[in-house]
Write a structure and sequence with these properties.
heterodimer, A: mainly beta, 6-stranded antiparallel beta sheet, 1 helix, B: alpha+beta, 5-stranded antiparallel beta sheet, 4-stranded antiparallel beta sheet, 22 strands, 25% helix
Amino acid sequence: MSKKLKRLPYSKIASRGIRSLNKLANLPPGTLYNAPRFEINGNTEIIAESCKSILEYSENIVQIDTNDLIVTFYGTDLKIQHIKTDSLIIKGRISSMEFHTK
Amino acid sequence: MFAIKLLHFIKGYVCFEGYSQNPHIFINSCLKTGLNLWNLKCDKDYICACVSVSHYKFLRDIVRKSNTNLKIKSRHGLPFYLQILKKRKGITVGIILFFLIINFLSHFIWNVDIKIDGNVETDIAAIETSLNELGVKNGAYMKDIDVQMAEKELMLKQDDVAWVSINLTGSVAEVEISIKTEPPKSQTDTTPCNLVASEPGQIVKSEVIAGQKEFTLLEPVEKGQILVNGIVQNEEGEILHKHSAGKVFALVRKNIDIETAMKDIEINLKDENISKKKLDIFNIVFPLTVRPSPKGNYESTIAKHSLILLGRKLPISITNEVFVKKEEKILELDKAQAQKKVRNLLEEKINSEKDTKIISSEENFEYLDNKIILHANVLLEKNIALESPLAVEIP
């Protein structure tokens, strides 16, 4: 019995296509698509862009959902200083960051 | 950071707090709606944050969806202050008037700043008076002043001014002046002349700089006698005409008569004084004292105090004129006092002549009709050398 190929949803096909095009054209990652960007200043401030939603927020953990990744920040005295449409500023003593693909 | 805080203040913001059953739904809804939140704190079901005034209305739906109870903690920013001002129209009108008046007054001169170049003494009061006459004064309308004409007129009015520059900077008229310095008088006057005796006397000392000495020490000389000759023969036998220079001191005897009254006027200033104050704003004078100036024998002194703000003189000053009563007393002098007075007059007269001093004097006093006359036979040591040009024949 032949295996039926599982069809990917159209949005996933489109996004993979755009990424391949980005790679082929030798453009910096995120040029043709919205890649999450993080600006880290020391270990006290992080500016995260392309943030879709906040999954968890406490003094020791901040977990955010970007387009392709779930990013978790660990530390102490963590505080979301500023929230805007798709970016936020996290301040505090950051000890580590974890990335999980969806 | 300061710029962001300033922007928030200008737009106005509110700080709110509340309890939510689904705090993450609340935060994510704010994120999706595009609301600008800051100072966000989230602890179990407690939420606290700040949001701008214009975005606060969007929280209504989010609060309903996430079952949140919100309460405004504090309100900050310009819109809230303006709300208070709306009720008090006087403050708004006052603020607007303040800026309008400052703008209007900035077209007038508030202060005339005179700077003089160099270390030369000059009469600043005369320069100020001339500037006032030319229109450069406190309270003058700046557009009415022709600066170039004023500079030229000032140089014509004041002889000792070599260069002047008037700059109207802001509300201050800066006047920079350079005073003329006289060149030193040339000492090399080459006009051939002799030195002759201006008075008869006995020569006691001399300082001959140029010319040929025609006298000896202790020699008596007559008036007009040549003391230093300008016609000189050099070593080669050539006759030269020189400008004689120097001083020749001789003992000269003179009869001097000095007359003065046997009275003296003593002026006493009494303790009682009257002061009159005036307020000067932009050269408009407001009297602060209603009392008129006293009539009679009064001596007045005027003191002007200008207001100074941050090192700058303002065109607001208070002039205080103090009148002190003078009491003139006529004192009758006795003989000794009258003699002392007349001797002082004699000394002043002698000292007013250059290179002259009294060696001795024989005094004789005469008293007539409340007057004292001093007949003095004085022996003076004075410079009797007088330049007398040579009559030179031009071939």
